[in-house]
Amino acid sequence: MIPPIASRFVAGETPAEALEHTQKLNQRNVNVILNLLGEHYHDRKPADEDAEVYVRLLEDIERSGLSACVSVKPSQVGLDIGTHVFRENMERIADAANDTFVWIDMEDHETTDATLDVFEQLTREHDGGVGVCIQANLKRTEDDLERLASLPGKVRLVKGAYDEPKEIAYKDKAKVDAVYREYLEYMFQEFEGGIAVGSHDPAMIEYAKELHEEYGTDFEIQMLMGVREDAQYELAEEYEVWQYVPYGGKWMSYFYRRVMERKENLLFAARAVLGR
Q1: Is 201 tagged catalytic?
Q2: Is 8 a domain residue?
Q3: Which CATH number characterizes residue 37's domain?
Q4: Angle at which helices 173-190 and 202-215 pack, to 10 degrees?
Q5: What global pTM score does this model have?
Q6: Which of 131, 150, 218, 269 has the fewest Cβ atoms nearer than 10 Å?
Q7: The domain containing residue 152 runs over which residues?
Q8: Annotation says 105 is catalytic
Q9: Distances from the Cα of 63 to the Cα of 25, 56, 60, 66, angstroms
Q10: pLDDT tens for each residue of 25-69
Q11: Which residue intervals define the domain Proline dehydrogenase in the entry (predicted)?
Q12: CA distance linking residue 61 with residue 130, whole number of Å
């Protein structure tokens, strides 16, 4: 059982708990992206097992009629073992999806090419039913967005959370903010839709709204469970909002990352421990 201190950021250990959380969010007009926690497997057995969990989760989503989709980490379904394992497991998941959308998360820069190659194959094969995450802090991203602009599916633009070498990534926050805005504008100009603004930054969300008004391109807003949830509910009154919801037994390391990345999260954890 996940302790209350972690339940702000993780929906539970079981699919049933994750779907219960999904139902509550749907009642507030917030859609849900479900992610089974797990990554960097070096043996095929756990990678195949998690792929099977996603297959069953997709079946549960479609039976439930909930507004939800899934998001999968490449290293969770075999990329660290071999590109062929990652591809095979993602094919299994995408084939099982039917009418439910499948996102592929992006991990560190060494996985970008393999992730984009598998995304391109699957989103073509599944009529745009697959999406991928792109990180603005990588210097290659401008070229990647040009590649993706003509493809079906969706692209989630995030600032980037991995500590990448300065030779390949922008390290200055102001620079990352600037290129994020540039890439957003490019997407609203060149993409026919399928834009996901993966940000908690109010300035970036406001800029996306302005671009939507200017270009008329469809977009959605994606934010994490436990972060600015009041803003999510408010935005959902007018815009399409998706909450990224992790669940599963491997919650401890994820919870630690969430607590340490923002001062507000650390204060929340401290208050919970102190009972205040």
Answers
A1: no
A2: no
A3: 3.20.20.220
A4: 20
A5: 0.92
A6: 150
A7: 15-251
A8: yes
A9: 18, 11, 5, 8
A10: 999 999 999 999 999 999 999 999 999 999 999 999 999 999 999
A11: 18-268
A12: 16
